[in-house]
Amino acid sequence: MDPSRSFMTNVKRLIVKVGTAVVTRADGRLAVGRLGALCEQLKELNSQGYEIVLVTSGAVGLGRQRLRYRKLVNSSLADLQNPQYELDGKACAAVGQSSLMALYDTLFSQLDVSSSQHLVTDNDFRNGSFRKQLSETVKSLLALKVIPIFNENDAVSTRRAPYEDSSGIFWDNDSLAGLLALELQADLLVLLSDVEGLYSGPPSDPNSKLIYTYIKEKHQGEITFGDKSRLGRGGMTAKVNAAVCAAYAGIPVVITSGYATDSIIKVLQGKQIGTLFHQDAHLWTSLKEVGAREMAVAARECSRRLQAMHSDDRRKILLDIADALEANESLITVENEADVAAAQDAGYEKSLVARLALKPGKIASLAKSIRVLAEMEEPIGHVLKKTELADGLILEKTSSPLGVLLIVFESRPDALVQIASLAIRSGNGLLLKGGKEAKRSNAILHKVITSAIPKNIGEKLIGLVASREDIPDLLKLDDVIDLVIPRGSNKLVSQIKESTKIPVLGHSDGICHVYVDKSAKVDMAKRIVVDAKTDYPAACNAMETLLVHKDLSSNGLLSELIMELQHEGVTLYGGPRASSLLNIPEAHSFHHEYNSMACTVEIVDDVQAAIDHIHQHGSSHTDCIVTENHEVAEIFLNGVDSAAVFHNASTRFCDGARFGLGAEVGISTSRIHARGPVGVEGLLTTRWVLRGSGQVVDGDKGVIYTHRDLAL
User: Fold this and answer.
1) Tens digit of pLDDT for each residue in 646-655?
2) How far apart are CA 209 and CA 202, in angstroms?
3) 3-state secondary structure at position 661
């Protein structure tokens, strides 16, 4: 539950207002599917003990559609040749209201829910006795679990243009809903719209962003509204006016989509959907809070200043960061130990706690890798190709930073250091979102690193995203953020891929295999298998499945491998063949990443069977063959379609630092842009630089193209 919406647990009575754009389709007909989904939600909430009052629009639009049809049926040919006159709105309301209520009655009856109809006008509420009686009647109905349905009685309203005249007690169904919320002392008002909530501008504008919490002092002067409702009176302007009035009178309000089938339920669960209006909202959020877009734009601006620096100055920033990490090691350790202790107390899995801990020597190791990175060849502006297009016209293809990176990672605070140093070396801006379990570690590491960035570049080069709720907004910024790299669980990576148009680089699982062939040396096989599993079981490059040639089950090597793993404390699970032969529990799935001292064992017929198994159950990460037969080794290396394939070497070597990349931002199993451990090169793109001496195209009349490759 979002902390700002924790009050939802105390909600019992709520007013739900559904607008014309939700009730009807674009052609004016009733949106029966949406109304059915709405009624099902209200039925569910009613059965849970919530008291619900529904305020509905749509009668005028529905009546207009019906009267137009009736007029068409009864028209003569001469009538059809004349322009149709505009139908009387009050007549439309009268006809549409009965049809609308008939449908609600039918839908609720099918759900075994009783409803009641209440048509009111502005003048009704000027009578104190009426208001008192209305309140008593509704309370009696709610006690009987009846859902009262309100609508303004437009058929007899005395105002000609109620949406233009706001002098009355209410002037549309949005303000009627707000008034009823106050009269009936509701705990919550939900206004259903045809968009997800209130945006900073028209929802169709790609630069508009959804506002999760409305703060009058901040947003009142910033927001620009689009057109009014497609069919109703006021659209979003009317909803905001009603929401502000109700919220500042003490009734919380949420504007959210009426198109979603579970939006009201999610609101009551405290999930961050729609826009919340609350009288205390200004106390929850600082008016100076930096939004997602502002953070991304600041990172881009800082990155451009970084790119313009001399190579030696960029190198010095990295060296200063390495020094700062070592100088603050004791402070970093204190914060990290606090995170580890909190994770243990919270009952987190051992594999997560292992990734969370910065073990002794880790800071020194990180500082060393940063210094190695600093001494590498300058990556920015490197000329990759040089071509003479024509005499005096030289074209260069050069390396260039991607722009702004968004990295979402779990558990491992050391990833923050590696990613930040790679971003600086490659000239990229960076936004980081770490897991809540590493909050203190990430905060101190971010502070130490950004304090070493010169003021003329700006510490906003590297932004630390504090709240998980900012991630959806960031993932919409495909015009500012150039690449997203998720580092974490399969669920995390999948969620991000499904939620953004921004290119995503990463891997979902690290299901790495070691295949021991029949010609493998015994001692070598044991060393590689044990190291691949036990050196760091929580790493994504640790062995998760051991494949063994069938002949090794008869010559004793399989037994030796099993005994060696069990001696190291590894829990073994078997495939169908291995489990019966070795008398070990059968694995529930071959596609499983343990991240702990456990692995799956299976017996295969030959190298081709091993390759087929890897392709069927693997994750295209890192796979290894142990064999003395070089022909078999080549079959494996050429046949396995993974980011990294090894011969007679542990899968644990698949690492940016071990590959000599200095550090890595992650390991990619994608096939576009970068694959395997992603270092500086994976964070670069290319651009073209053309140097001329006044040439013009002019239909190619005066240009003699040579297209000659030049030496670099």
Assistant:
1) 999 999 999 9
2) 9
3) coil
